[in-house]
Design a protein that fits this description.
The complex is a heterodimer of chains A (253) and B (294). Chain A has 253 residues and is α/β, with parallel strands linked by helices. Chain A has a domain at 111-176. Chain A has helices spanning 9-12, 34-41, 77-85, 117-127, 132-146, 161-173, 191-206, 218-224, 242-252; strands at 13-26, 49-62, 66-70, 92-98, 101-104, 179-183, 210-214, 227-232, 235-240. In chain A, the strands form 2 sheets. A 6-stranded mixed beta sheet of chain A has the order 5-6-7-3-8-9, with helices on both faces. A 3-stranded antiparallel beta sheet of chain A has the order 2-1-4. The longest helix of chain A has 16 residues, at 191-206. Chain A is globular. Chain A starts with 8 loop residues before the first helix and ends with a helix. Chain B is mainly alpha-helical and 294 residues long. In chain B, 64% of the residues lie in helices and 3% in strands. Chain B is built from 11 helices and 2 strands. In chain B, helix 7 (177-202) runs antiparallel to helix 10. Chain B is elongated. The interface between A and B is large, with 59 and 48 residues.
Chain lengths: 253, 294
């Protein structure tokens, strides 16, 4: 149980997203080609098209919440997670976050085929903020959860895609994060692994981890989340309890 | 593992990470204008740097029979050929030419290989940059440092040459200069790779520019010729190259037991710090833009 009431609201806040917008310039030509640079000098260059994957998005997340993020493909969900994680920067607005943030933006991200499982665990856990002693302590748990068996010292090129996915998830959920960002990665594994992941996520929730996760699986969102955000064309159109928001999303999408 | 953590077992830190278009800052939730940013601990970064450096080094020699021996073999072969050419064909007057050459080549090898590899590191490791989050500037620095391990092994060869050419070495307190010179070399390289690696994301031309510039720089650095052999107006010009001063200091310390002259110190310290500062500014300025291009 999470004793929310005892702690003042100000302390509980873990993430603030304030009027955040992100734009990309979409180049359909090679902008830096010498010919195009010359064209730009004389003002004849084709203009890059502006994309706004996010516009004026505002919300707060408090500690212990499990928030689902829904929206159709291209609605800005992944961009939002990347901005919160710090893998990209907003073009306007302000994001404030505290504690240990573990982004799970893609399973197996940052794994090089030549590295052994142990090296990948080290690199990724280090990148997520663990020191050498903590990694040593958690290594058995990470390996056991990922079900690596005897593959720990084997280069990743010999791993099946399921093993890579399990390893990525296992490292992220064993870093003891305050805020876990999950981008639709649960869809990869088989049913048993999905159940294991959900079990682990529920364990983390009980331990006080805050969760923001993207999923197209309405059933999973309903099961896990106590709040749902709905993004449509980069704008936050709904923010509320799962039943109402998902009903609106399913009717509107 | 602390799975059974109870509520509030770990308090959230009061330090917030603020991400704005202008960049990252650390401080309380509501920042006031003019307030000093809270500096973040350097400690965990050092660990990331060590792990990255070690893995870069290991990854380079995977699936090779001779592995790291290659990096020792190539300078030795080069030393043999160049010594043959310059003592038999062109007849240089440099005393102990093989040792002279080996010191120059070890330093050059670090700079050239390190710079080339680090320049394209964000392109090679695009996935790591795009999908995970860690202090990104450490990646080129780690790549550059991993070539420092090769340099240290080549330095062992230089030291081992004392058996073959005992009269080429002087054991003296001036040897203390060596680590100081290497420190400034690391600072110089850090500045260089921060600039080239981030610019190479936006303009892939940078990698080619680096390769071409290195060819030019090779001849503008007193590697196979001594600085003193260059006629005067040009010699002063060559001293603008910090590598020239570093080589003069290294060779003087190892081969003659000499402390560097004030001019050599200036030629080494000032450009290194300048390049480091400029590299940092370039990295900070282009990092955000570059992230959208990865």
């Amino acid at each position: 149980m999470i004793a929310k009431a005892e702690v003042p609201d100000e302390r509980e806040l873990i993430l603030r997203v304030d009027k955040v917008s992100k734009s990309y310039r979409r180049f359909d030509h090679q902008p830096f080609l010498l010919r195009n640079l010359a064209l730009r000098l004389v003002g004849r260059a084709p203009k890059p098209k502006e994309l706004w994957p996010l516009r004026d998005v505002c919300f707060d997340i408090r500690r212990g919440e499990t928030v689902g993020l829904v929206g159709i493909n291209g609605s800005g969900k992944s961009t939002l997670l990347r901005l919160i994680a710090g893998a990209a920067f907003p073009n306007a607005g302000h994001i404030a976050v505290r504690g240990r943030v573990a982004p799970l933006l893609a399973l197996g991200a940052g794994f090089q085929p030549d590295m052994t499982g142990r090296e990948c665990i080290e690199i990724n856990a280090t990148a997520l903020g663990l020191d050498a002693r903590e990694i040593e302590e958690r290594l058995p748990a990470i390996v056991a959860f990922a079900d690596l068996g005897s593959f720990l010292e084997t280069p990743m090129r010999y791993y099946s895609s399921g093993m890579t996915a399990r390893l990525g998830f296992s490292v992220a959920v064993h870093t003891d994060p305050d805020l876990l960002l999950v981008d639709e990665v649960l869809a990869v594994g088989d049913h048993a692994f999905q159940e294991k992941c959900i079990g682990r996520i529920e364990e983390l929730r009980r331990a006080g981890t805050t969760l923001l996760f993207v999923s197209h699986d309405a059933g999973m969102v309903r099961r896990l989340c106590d709040r749902v955000l709905w993004l449509r064309s980069g704008e936050l159109v709904a923010d509320g309890d799962p039943a109402t928001t998902l009903a609106a999303y399913e009717a509107g999408a | 593992m602390n799975l059974n953590r109870t509520d509030g077992a770990r308090a959230l830190p009061d330090v917030w990470v603020h991400r704005r278009p202008a960049g990252v800052s650390y401080g309380p939730l509501v920042e006031r204008a003019g307030m000093l940013a809270v500096p973040r601990a350097v400690d965990p970064w050092l660990h990331v740097l060590l792990v990255l450096t070690r893995n870069e080094f290991r990854a380079r020699y995977r699936a090779q029979a001779l592995g790291v021996l290659w990096s020792l073999l190539s300078p030795l072969v080069m030393m043999g050929i160049l010594t043959l050419v310059f003592t038999r064909v062109f007849r240089t007057g440099v005393p102990h030419f093989p040792v002279f050459l080996l010191i120059g080549m070890a330093l050059w090898e670090w700079l050239a290989s390190g710079l080339q590899a680090a320049t394209s590191v964000f392109v090679v490791h695009a996935d790591l940059v795009k999908r995970t989050v860690f202090p990104r500037h450490l990646l080129p620095i780690a790549t550059m440092l991993s070539f420092g391990i090769n340099f240290l092994m080549e330095a062992l060869i230089v030291a081992a040459m004392v058996v073959v050419f005992p009269s080429a070495y002087r054991l003296s307190p001036a040897l203390l200069v060596v680590p100081v010179v290497l420190l400034f070399l690391v600072l110089l390289l850090t500045g260089l790779v921060m600039a080239t690696s981030v610019l190479n994301i936006i303009y892939r031309d940078v990698a080619y520019l680096v390769t071409t510039s290195l060819t030019l720089l090779y001849w503008l650095t007193p590697i196979i010729y001594p600085l003193e052999a260059v006629p005067q107006p040009w010699q002063t010009l060559l001293r603008m190259n910090p590598l020239a001063s570093m080589l003069v200091a290294l060779r003087g310390a190892v081969m003659l037991g000499q402390w560097p002259s004030p001019l050599t110190w200036v030629g080494m310290v000032v450009p290194s710090l300048l390049v480091l500062a400029i590299g940092r500014v370039i990295f900070r300025h282009y990092e955000h833009l570059a992230l959208d291009f990865v």
